Every structure is written in C-alpha cells, then in structure tokens.
Amino acid sequence: MAIWHSHGFNSAKLRRTLNLSLTPVITVLFSALAVLTFALVSLFFNIPASNAQANISTKPIEVDLFVDGLNLLRPQALLEQSLKAGGKTELTIDNKPSGQMTIKSVKQLPITINVTQPDGSVKELPDPSATFETNLFITLTGIAQMQNTGAVVGEGLVKIGSPAKIEGFNYDINATIADVKEQ
After folding, report:
1. What span, in angstroms and rounded, lies between the C-alpha atoms of 61 and 95?
2. How far is residue 145's CA from residue 182's CA, in Å, rounded to a whole number?
C-alpha cells in the first residue's frame, strides 16, 4: 500500500510507518533519561553525606539516665547480675537505635514521702506503699559524634530530657536522659 493513492494522502499508512520506526527510538530515549535521572539523584545524595561525615569529630561521653518508678520484685538481683558496672547495654534514644554503651555505675535511689510530725516539722521517710517500686540513676559511657546540634550516639541525638531505653538479656527499661557530659 502506497502513501499516496487515488483519493489522496494515505495517513493511516504514514502513521503506522512512523509508529513502527519511532517506538524503539522513544523507548531508548526514555530509558536513557531514567538512567541519567537515577545517576544524578545518586550523585546528589552521596556527596553531602560523605562531606558531612568527614567533618564530624568523635569524643567519649557520659550519659546519665534517671529511671522513675520501675516495678521490680528483686531489685538487688537485677543490680548485681544485669546492671553491673562494666557491663554492656543497648541504648535507644527517641525510638532510634543508638548502639551499645558501657555501664559505668548504677545507684538505687530511695523512694520517700514527706511526713508531718506532731510538732509541725516535716520528715522525709521511706514510702511504705512503694514495696515493689525502684528509682535508679544509671551512668553510661560511650563514643558520640559531636555535631553542631549536640552529641549523636548511633542514630539518636543525646539531649537532656529525651526519652531513652536500655535493653539487655533480661531487662527492657524506659528512662529519661538527666545529663550529658564530655569526658
């Protein structure tokens, strides 16, 4: 069938010819565009990350955690077996894994209440209702990346007041960051 026939121009034949010849060209162009876009996006995201990591310094830090109202049946067993000085614990800050840190010290804090005395004075006495409740003050040590926004351990930014969690073989304890110090 010719492009020209007795009634004039045969547009259907021309369209079919162009479709068959341009389809591979268009496919190759779109594939090349996709590869170029992927390469540019990869290059764009890799350069800032590598430059940022090169300028970050690391320093040893201490992180103090306060655990308020932990319900325990035998607090001494936990302190002597699992949460002992020199042991390792997994730290999570703001639900972001922060890696392992070393336990420097653990102190059990007394739970007290204020009791008014007959003479009008106030005494701080142990709380009898806190039979299975324990307050702990835990100091952890580790290495942090020092950035202009603060110290970063793993993926978590270490700031006073941030929620934290320590986890070990037989414990999973929620705490609050009470202090951050460079060593």
Report:
1. 20
2. 11
